[in-house]
Amino acid sequence: MIIRQLNIKNFGKIHDKTLEFSPGINVLYGENESGKTTIHTFIKSMFFGLTRMRGKAARNDTYSTYEPWENPGQYGGTIWFNSKGHNYRLSRNFQKDHAFSELLNEDTKELADIDAVGLEKVLGNVSEAVYDNTVSVAQLKSVTGQDLVRELQNYMASYQGTGDSSIDLGRAMQMLKMSRKGYQVQADKKQKETEQEQQKLQVNMDYIAGEMNDLREKIAQIDEKEGSLGMRPGEENGALLLDEKLAETRKKRNGYALGMLASAAVGIIGLITSALAANSIAVSLTAVAIAAGLVFFCGRQQMKYAREFQKRVRMKNRWMSRQEKLKWSKESLKQDYDEKETDFRNLQEEYREYEENSYLPTLEEMEVQALNLAMETIEMLSENIHHQVGRKLRTRTSQILSEITGGKYQEVLMDAAFHMTVNTGDRTIGLERLSRGTMEQIYFSLRMAAGELLCQEESFPVILDDVFGMYDEERLAAVLKWMHKENKQIIISTCHKREMEILDREGIPYQKLLLS
Amino acid sequence: MRFIHLADVHLGAVPDRGCPWSSRREEEIWETFRRVIAGIRENPVDLLFIAGDLFHRQPLLRELKEVNYLFSTIPDTRIYLMAGNHDYIKADSFYRDFQWEKNVTFFKNEQLTCVKDEKLDVYVYGLSYEHQEIEKPLYDAARPVEGEGMHILLAHGGDATHIPMNIKGIASAGFDYVALGHIHKPQILIRDGAAYAGALEPIDRNDLGEHGYIEGHLENGRLKTTFVPFACRSYEQILLMLREDSTQASLEDMLKADLATKGRMNIYRIVIRGNRAPELLLLPERLKSFGFVTEVLDESRPAYDLEDLEKKYSGTLIGDYISYFLHKDRNVIEEKALYYGLQALLETSR
Q1: Closest A-chain CA to B316
Q2: Interface ipTM
Q3: Which of A48, A57, A456, A474 has the most CB within a 10 Å radius?
């Protein structure tokens, strides 16, 4: 693209000014504060518009800075340029209430409303960020040597990894990492809380399980007791045994009672018959004695078995009540056990549900995931850019540097830690050991190379804003000759006359643009 | 004739485990149920329907005894009770052998049965879950028996794994009222004809809005039902809209004002939306200290014009980054990643 002419109607402090540019080298000369920066801003605003910032930021945005004091209704002008073989005229009024823009293709006489269509096509897809990175070249800002080294290395690294020198990839990643750390801490805290809750449930379950164990043991003890009493099913029934014994005793008791009665009867009958039939008192007495002996014997036995019978009845009652008690307490223990078991299973289910829920990603984990994705994507895209422009940028930078230093520095190198060195052909030298002038040369080469690589569709002019302040005569002559050879449109913006003097001396044609 | 239709009481549930109010909520679920019974004692209704999930899990024996005791205090009310999918009748469930009070009719199995009320001309139909899930549409073929009077179906479920239902079809089969349970949000499906009573108390943070029960009565021979809010608190959502000039302090003030109008006893989920100034650093966690807040969802976005930025930074990493995400259907993570990365790249720019 070639800028042919500007007509500034009203922009900052400039009114009604026309500037004509040559397709080669132009020198825009003026004292400080004479409006050089205003012209740079005007050119950029013509191509990319002047969008207002919102809120507080609007107070000192570009729009407000360059808003004309007089005649504010007219805020803008016209630029004539050539792009992709066509001549265009682009007019704008930035005034927010009378905003207007119009692009005329002077060859085809086609008019376009660029607010609707956009300028991207016409400009060869150069975006505002790319323009900032390639077209306008300002002096390195740093003052001290060390800062300068860092600035230059940052520039190179940023270009290679992002295509934009203003992006600070390292700090951006650092910021994302810090956010991630914050969410990670929160996520861990939540995780701990969840685990604590689960722990509580577990403790509860363990407690109930313990109670269930106790109950089981008690039931087992009862089972054992029942066993010792022969109460277990399949064994001889204790009650039956007791009943048999009872019946036996009763039979014996009753037998002896009967025996006692029988012997008494026999004794009486014996006495009567012996008294009637015999006359011997001795016989009678003997019979009575025998009968009495029998009665006495039977009576004793009967008494004994009667006592035993009573004892056995008591025994059975005692046995029965004990059995009853065991049965009852076993019953209640079992009920207790069932209750605990249901409780336990409910808790188990709750525990399981809780565990399932804890697998769901928490809000914090989602933030961490998003931050990870952001970092991965940035890395991946940066690698792509590095792949596409990184090596080419270094090669072309080296080439330009070699050309403008007459082969003194042949190559620019950068290691993985973004440490830059230059190759002199027989050795490499770290940036920190180079003079400021040489560093400015490296910077210049880098900017030129970046401009070529980033604006591939359409070559853009380069606006050099006071960049040669640190160049000695020899360096300046070399760089001016190189620019002439490159056949690019270049606008050298300066407050010195050196550039013009050297151009004159070297016989290099250029367009002089004077601001006063 | 007057009735109360309850559902999804979830006795024994422990809402919001881990939150400081969790155990209090557990108690409140019981307490509100006791309040319903106490209310009936004061002002008796003829019938009380409990359409499933009276308990959150398998009921303990002592819990059944407690509930049965409560029922014994309202002897003039006949209670119709079924087990739902939460308290389904397991093989060894205490439901199986429990001896209910005379005024309680418990549907004992998965067979739809009809019970005629002993005092009124009301026929109540119902069944109980014996499984956690039932995919068969057990209610769709239900038909009322011949008989003068009201025919009321007690039904629990309505989704694919809990007895799917064609409510319109069921209602048009001739039931005067379908007392539904399972869905926690109270909703009237057919006016005076079929309704989910909803959970009596909200059971978790997703049960937003009012909760209570449904009361029905006959008016000139026609059944009228109304929803009666009865829960002691509700879960609500507060939406905080950010603007570009919002700050953490202005956000907190907004929240305080909202809490004051919506009530401090309720439990809140806070959603932050809108466009915030990119440089604003929000501390959403801090909002939790202003009331009962379960979670804070930050869905706000830095106020970036993505299309504009994409155009402006085209050809550089920032442009590539925006383009990478902008022209695809972004999921939640990708949406967040877009803004996180973009903000980091822009804010650290030299």
Answers
A1: A163
A2: 0.84
A3: A48
